[in-house]
Amino acid sequence: MKKSLCFLLLLICTRFAFAQPPESSIKQWQDQKFSMFIHFGGIYSVLGGVWDGKPVTRGLSEQIQAHAGIYSDTYANLAKNFNPANWNADSIALLAKAAGMRSIVLTSKHHDGFCMFKTATTDFNVVDATPFKRDVVKEMAEACKRHGLRFGLYFSLIDWHYPQASPISSHNSDYVTPEHHEYNKKQVTELLSNYGTISELWFDMGSQSPEQSKELYQLVHRLQPDCMVSSRLGNDQGDFAVMGDNQYPDYSIGVPWQSPASFFDETWGYRSWQKRGSEDEKYKEKLESLIRVISRGGNYLLNIGPKGDGSVVGFEKDVLLKIGAWLRKNAEAVYGTTADPFFTAFNWGNITSKPDKLYLFVTSVPADGSITLPGLEGMINKASVLGEHQSLQFKQTTDAAVITLPANFDNEKQIKVITVDIAEGYKVQPIHIIRSSYGHMELDEHNAYNYYSSSGIDYNSNYQSTVKQAWTIKPTATGKYHPSIQYTDEEKGSIIDFTVNNVTATLKLDNDRLMKYKVDTAKIKWGPLYITGPYSAGLGGLNGVAGKIDITKPYTNDADKPWQRMDSYKNGQLIDLPAGMDNAYYVLQNIKVEKGLIYAQVKITSGDGIIVMFNGKQMIINNNPGKAGSVDHIIGLDLMPGNNQLLIKVFNNFKKNIPFAINHSIPQNIYIKDLDPVMFDANRLYPVSLKLHDSASPHQTLKLPNLEVWFAKK
């Protein structure tokens, strides 16, 4: 294939690549698998979720200052009560090791601004403001070093104690003022300079400017190049993606990632009145969560909330020790493994892998007592229960392997792992294979196998971003195929890495053959626009259904928000929709086509974020990384005979209005990039993929909604 740009031109035209830590550091972090999160604060841990003698049932207990409405001076004076006689960093490090954890992440400062380390920036810290007068971060760092654990730190980007910070809000996505940003930088500098090697810096909350996020990211890597930075730094900065709290994704993630989990969804900090229930049930719940995360290639960060006296809650300790006992027996299936190589989910459990082994975590015994592994290529030598002298029967066909569980297979008390040995290695055939039809193969985002990350300006604007698209093609005839890439003004200027059969070309989508397309407008009837809202919403997801919407019924259960016809709206008109924080409107247009298939492009203008759905399929989801006043998107619509529905969600983060426009009277430009031909053999499988070249961030979405790849045999 031709490379459309020389190296020098790429340097000029592209932004600087996202400078992550070395691959060895990323791998070391990924290999942790299981880590301990510790929410321990000099005030909230002492209060334990209680204020004025009453349980505070609203919100998280580590944020009790906000949820109980405690005056800032009253709250600060409570630091005098912090003297945790039972705090012992060594015992906690040893507990983490016994639980099978490889690192600890400690809260250096939570939203209340109280520092669990000695700092020159404020006397509101554990050494200067409490009778304890010991540096908790220092003690934990030294204990981790003694016991062979890696050490990371949590750091809140918002600070309710710092006078120049934004005040307490209900959403915690507060703006970080310039003074506050400088304050944060000084404290981060102290943390990365005074406590040895820090494996990860876990930023949280706040809504920073792109420049602030980049500056902190660069500061961390200047002080400690190997330190992994969490994506909650905002603005798509960060070395690893952090899932939502207690979120366990069931999709493939294309970047290093982590799931933070609490013992109870209601709180992270200690809560004295928490109903804890059965240890056995909690053990099974958290173990299954760990298994789900590592089978998807992620790290599991499980939190404990020590009491105000520094001791670990007995319930949490016992559950961790049970998990540790299970891990000692099944360590081979957890550490040093990679993600599930199959392209489908299994009802019976999850899988991890090594080059010559598969590990099957059976969390639910199939009714017929058998486990099928579809598309497995490679000769199985043996199947057995890990840690037990019990071999299992199996049989293989050309396209699957079936393992039979013994009649006495019991996983009620302990989740069992089946080891499948494949000495010469294995391959897994994709389930979805695109075959040539009449010598053509067409690839787009709707028939791709997608790899995701989490993108967002701040916590409230996060969404599931697509960072890579992959296909497997199967030509039905041997010969020369001519690949081409079709795109629109939406994709124009993008630089992509396009890979066919493991050969990559870097291509700029620009200066290519223009194919002007004239829409037969006489066959299209653009219906009136209908709008409903505003709704309370984040950027990701919809408040109602995606397709086949009935405008005579409210979009949600909110009966007071019917669809309103926008009779005064004119095509292409820019309007401002009044909105509060985290508000969204939905705009619906029915488009009727008399007969035949018609392709048409529309331009849609939005503000902080947008989702476009067409006939129930998502065409684009995107935020506004530069926080511009408005953003335009060109969306191509494959109009079908009959009625078509275009649903647009427009999202507001912090502004007071949402700009909106839709224009279907725009140039219908289609560009064709012709590439060098490739030889394909009939009935062989060939991998194809694309991703952004040197993207500004590993979490940045592709934003290529109209791009299509064609392979044509000539």
TrEMBL record:
Which EC numbers characterise this protein's activity in its record? 3.2.1.51
Q: Which residues form the signal peptide?
A: 1-19
Question: What keywords does the record list, in alphabetical order?
Answer: Glycosidase, Hydrolase, Signal
Q: Which GO terms describe its molecular function?
A: alpha-L-fucosidase activity
Q: Where is the Glycoside hydrolase family 29 N-terminal domain?
A: 25-332
Keyword Signal in annotation: yes
GO biological process terms, alphabetically, are:
fucose metabolic process; glycoside catabolic process
Q: Give one Pfam hit by family name.
A: Alpha_L_fucos
Annotated GO CC locations: lysosome
Q: Which InterPro entries match?
A: FUC_metazoa-typ, GH, Glyco_hydro_29, Glyco_hydro_29_N, Glyco_hydro_b
Protein family (similarity comment): Belongs to the glycosyl hydrolase 29 family.
What's its job?
Alpha-L-fucosidase is responsible for hydrolyzing the alpha-1,6-linked fucose joined to the reducing-end N-acetylglucosamine of the carbohydrate moieties of glycoproteins.
Protein name according to UniProt? alpha-L-fucosidase
Organism (species): Mucilaginibacter gossypiicola
